[in-house]
Amino acid sequence: MNQRIWINISLVVIIFSLSVIIFFNKNEIDDELLPLSSINPKSIININVQRKNIDNLSFSKSDGVWSMGTPLQLQANRTRIESILKILETKSYKQFNLDEVDIAQFALRSPSVILELNENKFSFGTNNPINQRRYILFNKKIHMIDDFHFPQLTTNAAYFAETKLLPDKINIISIRFPEYTIRLNNGKWRASIPEYDEEKVKQIINKWKEIIAISVSKYEKQEGQKSITINSMSGQEINFAIVATTPYLILGREDLGIQYNMSMGDAKQMF
What we know:
Number of helices: 5
Oligomer: single chain
Strand content: 25-35%
Shape: elongated
């Protein structure tokens, strides 16, 4: 084996050894960091977010389901809520006692965001220009944490809406589209156009029951827009405004103040 091959093998061994050392050192550092709090996320039933120059947010949990109370009244997206609650378990990289610093230097005298989880308050200050971590005031200490939560808490309210268009376990009895209607009649599905047999109608119904939007945004009413009306066995009527069909299908809920942005693949199976 010539000298060049031995040199290459030695370099690989050195690089591997350094990688192992860095990996384990990083794990040791992470293990030494304490979580921001010892609060159990499952104990939280109320969330309030005070935001400067933006609508405040409020959420509450009942029977395991999160709902937004302000500024919109709708079911909240569980994944988004769980992301907020992760702040309780995030790592605190550094702590300062209040009597040791001037909170003004951390922009905490008048915080831009205050997050309240039950009776626990987290005030968000500025971020560190070197490592981009965020300073927050909690439990009479200023902590430095990863800046994952601030951008989420300052986004638009529609971001927190449930992306599923219809309630779980809804029993649909009819859908009225602009050009035709499908309806449950004597236990069988019928369409007002002959091109659709019962199997096709069932596929449409099942698609509506499970459909999930790729994103949700603030409702923007358009002139002359048509609508889709869904009726359930319980008497519930849900109206969707057809905000746009190209390049993507957008369905609006004027009563909730939001609109759903659909993928084209899903859109084709909904009609």
